[in-house]
């Protein structure tokens, strides 16, 4: 960790760099203007794997457990609940992946733009040397952009989790945890049902194939239940404290006004509270987040 003196020197050097007469040449955006999508091989593979695992769970739940069941009500209720949660999980994943997380425009660190900010004496602006832009956020080396309220870069959604898509990421972790828990409960009931009845009558597949498919689903559901529950908890804590994961990791000093937990939650999910908080198809209103970095007084 740098000392306060070193940080001040870094700020002075950055501020001096911004006061030069040399024009700032915009850098390449790397992202198509029509749709936000990160061309990262690791992230793309992780995203495809995520969808494949959900489809595998869908296959086992429908064709191994629900369709062969003799109880029509049990099959209809659990099939409706599971498919609804799976749809919401995949929709949340797609929105988290294809939504601009809050990228700062590149190449805006010009003398004219800085003068338009009407800074007070003692205030400085931070410049990202990679984006050549005013830096009110952290720079992501994968997205190659500065992201507002960047929490972390998640390869499973092939995107950063930031100001504009944190709602979708929270919903993604929540719905994945719910379908994982639902799958585990159904697997337990199916095992009990098969032990009491003939294994050849409780599934369309052979008993060995049925056991293998159920064990794999149980392992997948347990793993992702633990993983997404932890991620969901950390995201909720970050929202309530209005402190991103990077800020917690770096133990950065709070330089913005503290708000209530309810206000911080509404800033992410929208105002007022409604059922649309839990729907990934709607974009929350403009969040009133932290102050810009150039408003920090040194």
Automatic annotation (TrEMBL):
InterPro entries listed in its UniProt record: Palmitoyltrfase_DHHC, PFA4/ZDH16/20/ERF2-like
Highest taxon listed in the record's lineage: Eukaryota
Entry keywords, A to Z: Acyltransferase, Membrane, Transferase, Transmembrane, Transmembrane helix
Subcellular location: Membrane
Palmitoyltransferase DHHC domain location: 127-251
Membrane-topology annotation of the record: Multi-pass membrane protein
Transmembrane segments: 41-66, 72-91, 168-193, 205-227
GO terms, molecular function: protein-cysteine S-palmitoyltransferase activity
One Pfam family of this chain: DHHC
GO CC entries: membrane
Keyword Aminoacyl-tRNA synthetase: no
Comment field on protein domains: The DHHC domain is required for palmitoyltransferase activity.
Family classification: Belongs to the DHHC palmitoyltransferase family.
Name of the protein: Palmitoyltransferase
């Amino acid at each position: 960790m740098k000392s306060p003196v070193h940080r001040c020197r870094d700020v002075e050097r950055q501020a001096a760099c911004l006061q030069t007469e040399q024009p700032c040449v915009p850098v390449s955006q790397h992202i198509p203007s029509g749709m936000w999508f990160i061309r990262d091989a690791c992230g793309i593979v992780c995203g495809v794997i995520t969808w494949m695992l959900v489809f595998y769970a869908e296959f086992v739940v429908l064709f191994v457990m629900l369709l062969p069941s003799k109880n029509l009500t049990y099959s209809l209720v659990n099939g409706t609940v599971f498919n609804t949660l799976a749809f919401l999980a995949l929709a949340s994943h797609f929105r988290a992946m294809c939504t601009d997380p809050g990228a700062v425009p590149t190449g805006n660190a010009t003398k004219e733009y800085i003068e338009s900010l009407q800074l007070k004496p003692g205030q400085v602006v931070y410049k990202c040397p990679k984006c050549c832009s005013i830096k009110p956020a952290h720079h992501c080396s994968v997205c190659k952009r500065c992201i507002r309220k960047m929490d972390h870069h998640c390869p499973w959604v092939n995107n950063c989790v930031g100001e504009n898509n944190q709602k979708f990421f929270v919903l993604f972790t929540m719905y994945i945890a719910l379908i994982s828990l639902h799958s585990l409960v159904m697997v337990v009931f199916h095992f009990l049902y098969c032990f009491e009845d003939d294994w050849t009558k409780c599934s369309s597949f052979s008993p060995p194939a049925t056991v293998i498919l159920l064990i794999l689903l149980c392992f997948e559901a347990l793993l992702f239940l633990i993983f997404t529950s932890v991620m969901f908890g950390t995201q909720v804590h970050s929202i309530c404290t209005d402190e991103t994961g990077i800020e917690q990791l770096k133990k950065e000093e709070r330089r913005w006004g503290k708000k209530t937990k309810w206000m911080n939650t509404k800033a992410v999910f929208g105002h007022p509270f409604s059922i649309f908080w839990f729907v990934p198809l709607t974009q929350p209103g403009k969040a009133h987040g932290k102050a810009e970095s150039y408003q920090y007084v040194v």
